[in-house]
Every structure is written in C-alpha cells, then in structure tokens.
Amino acid sequence: MVLTIPLVLLLAVVAVLLLRFKAVGFGAAVVVALFGFYLAHTSAADTVNHLVTAVTDALPGIRH
C-alpha cells in the first residue's frame, strides 16, 4: 500500500511541531513562511520546484 502525503502538509506538520516543542519561535516561523511566499514569486521558484521534485522522486529508490 502506498500512502501519498502532500509535501505542504508534511512541512506544515513539521512547522507546528517545531513551534510546539519551542525549537523555533513564532516570529522566526512567520519570517520563514513569508520568505517562502516571496520566494515563490521569484525566478528561483522553478529551481526549488525541480530540486524538491528530484529529491522526492529519488526517495523511493533508496533501499537499506
């Protein structure tokens, strides 16, 4: 059985856990989230998308 989780949902859960366990402050989380929104509107967005796609495509091929 294959379970598919959207990357944005996974990142949201990680962000909430980091906030919950006080590994990162609320202000830093807001700054990083805003940086992500502004980054999405730059020419670097395509590069980031290709990098994330390459990593997520490679993960199932990694065997222990």
Q: Give the SSE string.
A: HHH
Q: Quick one: biggest sheet?
A: none
Instruction: Give the overall shape.
Output: flat
How many β-strand runs?
Answer: 0
Structural class: mainly alpha
Provide key terms for this protein.
mainly alpha, 64 residues, 3 helices, single chain, flat
What does it look like?
The protein is 67% helix and 0% strand. It is flat. The protein is built from three helices and no strands. The chain has helices spanning 7-20, 26-39, 44-58. It has 64 residues and is mainly alpha-helical. The mean pLDDT is 88. The two termini are 19 Å apart.
In short:
This protein has helices at 7-20, 26-39, 44-58. With 64 residues, it is mostly helical. The longest helix is centred in the C-terminal third of the chain and has 15 residues, at 44-58.
Secondary structure elements and pairings:
Elements: H1 7-20, H2 26-39, H3 44-58
